[in-house]
Amino acid sequence: MLYVVATPIGNLDDISMRALKTLENAELIAAEDTRHTLGLLEHFGIKKPLVSYFEHNKLSRGPELIAKLKEGADIALVSDAGMPGICDPGYELIRDCIDAGIEVTVIPGPCACVTALVLSGLPTDVFVFEGFIGTENKQRKAFFDRLGRERRTTICYEAPHRMQKTLSEIEALFGDAGTPDRRISVCRELTKTHEEVLRGTASELKDHFGENAPRGEFVLCIEGSDKAPGSADVKGNASEITGASAGCSGLASENEMRAYYYELTNSGSLPKEAMKALQNRFGITRNEAYRIVKLPEKL
């Protein structure tokens, strides 16, 4: 069996008893960085064989691990910090195990994006996790295009040396959209000695980091917009949402469309009204809407 084991993101006391027992009982531990994981194991007095599994050796190491699992080995998968599979190649090993009929289980625990979301004070009922914003211009442009019209709380990771650039781009984006007051939470060094949570607008946070150089690991939580193109208050009557954003289907993923539908129905809209609003907002056909939401076509 493959055991996906969450490990502390900073404070070692956050590891669970179940995680420790799993690491103790595993025949082999696959780690993103064996040196980093060795420090964790030594802290808790655990001695187990370690093998590396990370982005640059996943193609060769993955099949080796699958072969051992098929032979009946119990392997624990860990990342440097937090939940394996979140912004690391762990998800590929998990997927390959599932495809091969190998049993997989998760030992839950710390996760930076969820911790930051709860600390942010922003809405948690619906949110989207974007991972690392990235460095390539095309990748960053796509991120900011999505952010400009995103109605859910957005969570993302950012490197300290890019914080000022990112905040400047968000400030310009929100200013042009007429939403300069959209709230942002910046969490730094979560669960560590110098944990810090800053809350404010992009402009306020940019000024802060202009005087205090960004250091450490950052998670940003960004408030959703209530002025996204073609949007209306989801707590209102879904039938009042017009087709002002028709033609936007190429800009949104099916997950976003599905989340929008359930946001409406969870707010009191009837399924038929929500389905019509979905078609109008994203410019999709009736059949597409039913396929995306995965509902029978007769409501």
Give the domain tally: 3
Average pLDDT reading = 87
Beta-strand percent range: 15-25%
What is the CATH class designation of the largest domain?
Alpha Beta
Shape: globular
Low-pLDDT sequence parts:
228-251
Q: List how many beta strands DSSP finds.
A: 10
State the end-to-end distance: 42 Å
> What is the annotated CATH architecture of the largest domain?
2-Layer Sandwich
What's the gyration radius in Å? 22 Å
What percent of the residues sit in helical stretches (DSSP H or I)? 40-55%
**Class per helix and strand makeup:** alpha/beta
> Strand sequence of the main sheet, in spatial order?
3-2-4-1-5
Count of DSSP helices? Answer: 11
Q: Superfamily at the CATH H level of the largest domain?
A: Tetrapyrrole methylase, C-terminal domain
What string gives the helices and strands in order?
EHEHEHEHEHEHEHEEHEHHH
Q: At the third CATH level, what is the topology name of the largest domain?
A: Methyltransferase, Cobalt-precorrin-4 Transmethylase, Domain 2
Largest sheet: 5 strands, parallel
